[in-house]
Specification:
Order of helices and strands of chain B: HHHHHHEHHHHEHHHHH
Low-confidence stretches of chain A: none
Radius of gyration of chain B: 22 Å
Shape of chain B: globular
Mean pLDDT of chain A: 88
Mean pLDDT of chain B: 90
Number of helices of chain B: 15
Distance between the termini of chain A: 59 Å
Oligomer: heterodimer
Strand order of the largest sheet of chain B: 1-2
Number of strands of chain A: 0
Strand content of chain A: under 5%
Helix content of chain A: 55-70%
Order of helices and strands of chain A: HHHHHHHHHHHH
Strand content of chain B: under 5%
Largest sheet of chain A: none
Distance between the termini of chain B: 21 Å
Amino acid sequence: MLDLIYEMFPIALTSSVPLIITGLGGVFSERSGVVNIALDGCMQIGGFVAAALLVILEGLGVPGAIWYSVIAAIIAGGIFVSIHAFASIHMRADQTVSGTALNVLAGGLTITLCEIIFGHKSTTAFSISSIFQRVSIPVLSDIPIIGDLFFTNNYPFTYFAYVFVIISWFILYKTAFGLRLRSCGEYPQASASMGINVQKTRWIAVVASGMLAALGGATLVLTTQTYFHAGSINGLGFVAIATLIFGRWHPVGVLGAGIVFGFAQVLGYYTNSLPLLSAIPSQFFNMFPYVLTIIILIIFSGKNFGPKASGEIYDPGKR
Amino acid sequence: MTRKHSALTISIIAVIMGVLIGCLILAVTGRNPLNIFVALIRSLTGFSINRPDRGINLMYPLNWLLSSMPIILTGLSVAFAYRTGLFNIGGEGQFIAGCIACSFVALMVDLPPVVHTLACIVAAALAGAIWAFLPGFLKAYRNINEVVICVMLNYTALYFNDWFTRTFFPIDTFTLARTIDYPESVSLGNLGFGTASQFNWGFVIVLICVAVFWFVMEKTTFGYSLRATGFNSEGSRYAGMKNRRNTVLSMMIAGAFTGIAGAIVLIGNYGYGRIFTSFDNFGFDGISVALVGGSNALGVLASGLLFGLMAASETQFQILGIPSEISDLIQAAIIIFVAIQYGVSLVLDLISNNIMKKKVKEAA
């Protein structure tokens, strides 16, 4: 049983990491008061740019191609999400509508670019040798149990995710900027009256969320797939939103929620080895994250964990 | 000076800008943007500009109407909820719920023709309404954001359908990926006029739905109270309207429209129960249709026909060397312009002010 858990953990973490990184993006954006339903679209852009650039650079024989690909994906995500930032911050757009537009746009744009660059509806496959390999962290992996579970035999992205969780928590809860950012999501008119530039703060938060989501998408494609295609992201951006809500809009909560959802996805593969679970159809494991999110929302309803002004159009003249 | 610009003006500008952006993308990537119009005219009239000798092929306009049918219904669905202040992004789930109910009645119940088909459609409407009940109820009584619940229910429906269909319906033994064919008593007929088009009587049902939407929303007290709820929730509650009940009912009626779309697509285009591996995106398309249609019945009908034209042209795009995803790009651009209508209005004001100033100068 314990061996099985040790075996499952790195696989579950691999499914969790894109959710955690993207969910963190959602935390920034929603905490600043902008609902970013376009996380899914940003993930698609990130996954596409990372995979496409990796294939191209690989062909040119550039050393360290994966680093350029990942960084380009992050930048592309930041640029892409700017449309949402502009529409929702300056144009008083309904944030759900403009987010939906970005999701449609990402689906069309990535596949159109695939056809233009590669001649078919997906990127060509990149070679396994050019992506990151699974590694263990020295020292930390020697800690009993925790070391084996969290720091052994994982892709570097997993360790990045831990670091991002800590950085996000620090920025949001231990810096003046974080306090201001959160205030913009609670009562932006009050923040403005204290001299905070609400629009600038929200811009930073939304662009950060797009960058993180793109990194999440890149992580997903580079660790679990060999090329980018229309079904690569498969709505995981929406699971990331579930992660964000289940994690109560808090970076550490997102980490926990991400691991739970990652496990839910992986459990389906292990039903044969676990006699208790073999009676449950595999589709129920697929449903689990979504149903769990609904249940959690019902349980938490009435207690306001979420940012108050999230999704509201910011009108500086309103009091 | 700011003047209110009509929803129609905004929609028309958004559509023009969307198509222009599509052309721009094609031009930048070295394709001929005029081919978009060649494809659209082919789908609209059946006349090919490149091959005028072939005359008019009725199959293309019929297929245009066929692909408009489901998105007009999902457009009505999103519009109905939107008028009550709700964002129904749960179309995919309601669509699949409708499909499950349709297959259930088609395969498990024995009824005479016509009655059987109508029973399938009614069942699908009920299933869509039931699937939409939860987000409406939670929004009304627990103040939980309907968007999140809708999205979660979309994916739940996707996997639920897979399990339910495989467990309870007779599966086609050759493909193992769908149910057996529906019995002959379940059919929407064929109005292909001798062409290969699958166009069918479902179009009449779509038109009835448009009429029902218009009548309920614009001509009944119930519709008035729904609109009031959407316009000013506190105010309407003060006026004695049952906001919570309205929210739940509005979401359920919206779900019913989408459920009917599921039945019409299954009966008319497939003739068997499907095991979905991904969404058909009719529910998401309904968002664009409703937004461009200004969330009223005739507007949705018109914009549904417009987006249907785009969808029907995708194969033509492909043949003419245009990536078929260009229609997604155009659609996205259109939604963005509708979303930023505040900015569009500002620009329009600026232009009209300049014209006014010029006129004043000329007069002086």
